[in-house]
Specification:
Elements lengths: L16 H8 L10 H14 L24 E5 L5 H9 L4 E5 L3 H14 L4 E4 L3 H6 L6 E7 L17 H10 E11 L2 H12 L4 E3 L5 H4 L9 H8 L5 E7 L4
Parallel strand pairs: 1-2, 1-4, 2-3, 4-5
Antiparallel strand pairs: 5-7, 6-7
């Protein structure tokens, strides 16, 4: 793993952020990059990359965007090939969107969409997302997405899942009151795992009122390649939405 930062006190241990951090990082690179991909990586990523303040302070997410993100800032954790993130960036040009993905081949796919679509409201964290979240101030994001994360299906691996009591507490902390955390998975066990931990988080409320709220996709959903694979294999996705409770 590269670029690993120190986690905040209390973040280590079973079912905590440190476990999620290890789960988030898989392969850094897959297929060999083509020349145009290498060019985009060198030309575009330095200007879009989200680093952390050297002084150890908090990061102002709206300050990452030249237009100031008047529509707020969203975070997508593990954007894969970037289809969902790019679609949101096109549909919501006033929103600043931070995508976190350490897999280089996924980053270059998003960079292509950014380049060809002139998407100026996208920034990329290509290293540790848990360190990024830890450095965000309270109540600074309108939305957080976690879509089709690695399910780590074997029982001994489940502690490596990104969703944990600690990671949900951090997501709730950085969401504004009424802000949304959206999770999608085609693995029933992971959906149940997430619901159980969200139920233990006093700052998150499941918004579902009827079965169609979790069996149907979110409004404006563009789909993802992972979802297409799941549907082709006969696996039905689950879509969970949680709202941040009002602070007292």
């Amino acid at each position: 793993m590269t670029g690993r930062e120190t986690l905040p006190p209390g973040a280590e241990g079973h079912d905590g952020i440190a476990e999620a951090e290890r789960a988030f990082f898989g392969r850094r690179k897959g297929k060999r990059l083509r020349g145009v991909q290498e060019d985009r990586l060198a030309r575009l990523l330095p200007g879009l990359r989200v680093g952390l303040p050297a002084d150890g302070g908090r990061l102002d997410p709206a300050g990452l965007f030249s237009h100031g993100a008047p529509g707020g800032v969203w975070l997508e954790i593990g954007f894969g090939g970037g289809e969902h993130l790019a679609a949101n960036a096109r549909a919501h040009p006033d929103v600043g969107i931070i995508g976190a993905e350490p897999f280089v081949n996924g980053v270059v796919k998003l960079l292509r969409a950014v380049d060809e679509g002139d998407l100026r409201n996208v920034r990329i964290r290509d290293e540790d997302v848990t360190a990024l979240i830890a450095r965000l101030p309270d109540a600074c994001l309108e939305r957080v997405y976690l879509l089709y994360p690695d399910p780590w299906p074997k029982r001994r691996q489940r502690k490596r899942r990104f969703v944990s009591d600690a990671s949900l507490a951090e997501i709730a902390r950085v969401l504004k009151d009424g802000g949304l955390f959206r999770f999608a998975s085609d693995i029933d066990d992971y959906a149940g795992w997430t619901l159980a931990r969200a139920a233990r988080c006093p700052d998150l409320r499941w918004t579902a009122e009827r079965a169609s709220d979790w069996t149907g996709p979110f409004p404006g959903w563009p789909g993802t390649r992972y979802e297409a694979k799941a549907l082709a294999a006969g696996r039905a996705p689950t879509y969970l939405e949680f709202a941040r409770a009002t602070r007292t």
